[in-house]
Amino acid sequence: MRVSVLFSGGKDSSLSALLMEPFFEIELVTCSFGMLPNGELAAQTAKELRFPHRVLNLEQEILEKAYGKIMNDGFPRSAINYIHEKAVETLATDPAVKIIADGTRRDDRVPVLSISQVRSIEDRLGVNYICPLKGYGKKTLNVLIGRYLQIEEGPSESIQKADYETELREFIRQRHGTEKVMELFPAHIQSHVLSRKQLV
Amino acid sequence: MRVSVLFSGGKDSSLSALLMEPFFEIELVTCSFGMLPNGELAAQTAKELRFPHRVLNLEQEILEKAYGKIMNDGFPRSAINYIHEKAVETLATDPAVKIIADGTRRDDRVPVLSISQVRSIEDRLGVNYICPLKGYGKKTLNVLIGRYLQIEEGPSESIQKADYETELREFIRQRHGTEKVMELFPAHIQSHVLSRKQLV
User: Fold this and answer.
1) Is A58 helix (H, G, I), strand (E, B) or coil?
2) Angle of CA points B54, B165, B56, to nearest 5°
3) H/E element holding A29?
4) Phi and psi dihedrals of A112, rounded to 5?
5) Interface touch A134/B135, C-beta < 8 Å
6) What is the DSSP letter of A82?
7) A99, A136, A144 ranked by CB distance to B140: nearest
8) Which residues in chain A touch residue B99, judged by CB atoms under 8 angstroms apart?
9) Is the pLDDT of residue A183 over 80?
10) Which residues of B touch A (CB under 8 A)?
């Protein structure tokens, strides 16, 4: 049973793949608008994790609409959620894709699909959608991440990560400059996975 | 890292244990009011699954209060949820227990702890609580269950299972007879795990 895991190179999507590995055939999929070398960056991390990987190009129109949302809202939540929903839908239209997974945690606020969005995607597009971390709280996840993954952490503007946020930031930077990016995106700690830890 | 999995001998708690097995040290715990041989029944299933198992006796007062709820409501939902919450709390007060897991699915309606109940238990009692199946929909779970578990299914009154419902039914049967049980508990298909499937 093959699962296509939406993969940013971050610790949550990486851990999702690791937790499913004993039970599913794993494929990592990185969605990109082609604005930044997100695909190549994620491919390198996927190689370190020893999973097959591919890049899925998203329509430019999705990024334009997300841009409209963030400029209207003044903060990124609904824009990021919108890109995530469209990424799942785009992946779900691939006839070879039967199960989609992502790194959503129990305590995540963004990007999160609501249960009605999930059911709508499953019913309309004939896929199953899994969030392997959805039943886990922060403390247990931190222990698992610390045990299985080598990561680097830092402020969100300095860490290279292949998530939706990086391309949306770049899109806004090109149109409005770095200050506008700093204004719209609250600074937070990002992480990027380097490799699997060697288990003793 | 040891996880205590609330275990009824049903497919959901069994699959929870299997999905965590590669990453945690598993202990199965069956809660019982001692009205029926639930502990022995679950111990037999646990042995077939090759996990360590123990029985945790719950206070009679919990059953009395659950009885009050079901008689008042006319249906079992809040009574079963109440027993489940008290079972998690009772297990959490064991100083050796650090992580508690159960078989709650994404689409379950009962027994389900709300996110605020979960956070309250984690904060008050210093445990972490995991629902490994929480991010999985019905179709994917059915495939996993079919692949890993040998089960028997039948109407809820004929299948031997060591969950909270069986003892609450027995408590009501002793006081009011079988007809009252049939009236309060909607008939549904139950399942009981026989063993692990031998993987080829």
Assistant:
1) coil
2) 20
3) strand A25-32
4) -135, 130
5) yes
6) H
7) A99
8) 140
9) yes
10) 1, 19, 22-23, 99, 104, 106, 115, 118, 122, 128-137, 139-140, 143-144
Least confident piece of the model among A112-116, A126-130, A165-169, A186-190 = A186-190
Q: pTM value?
A: 0.95
Cβ atoms of B186 and B75 closer than 8 Å = yes
Single out the residue of B117, B121, B101 nearest to residue B12, CA to CA: B101
Q: Any idea of the CA torsion for A45, A148, B21, A99, to the nearest 10 degrees? A: -20
Amino acid, single-letter form, for residue B10: G
d(CA B162, CA B37): 8
Q: How far apart are CA A104 and CA A88, in angstroms?
A: 13
Question: Which one of A6, A99, A136, A199 makes the best mutation probe of the B interface by having the most chain B beta carbons within 10 Å?
Answer: A136
How long, in residues, is chain A?
A: 200
Q: Report pLDDT digits (tens) over A115-157.
A: 999 999 999 999 999 999 999 999 999 999 999 999 998 886 7
Q: Enter the tokens of residue A128.
A: 């199953």
Angle at B30 between CA B137 and CA B34, to 5 degrees: 135
Chain A residues at the B interface, defined by Cβ less than 8 Å, are 1, 19, 22-23, 99, 104, 106, 115, 118, 122, 128-137, 139-140, 143-144
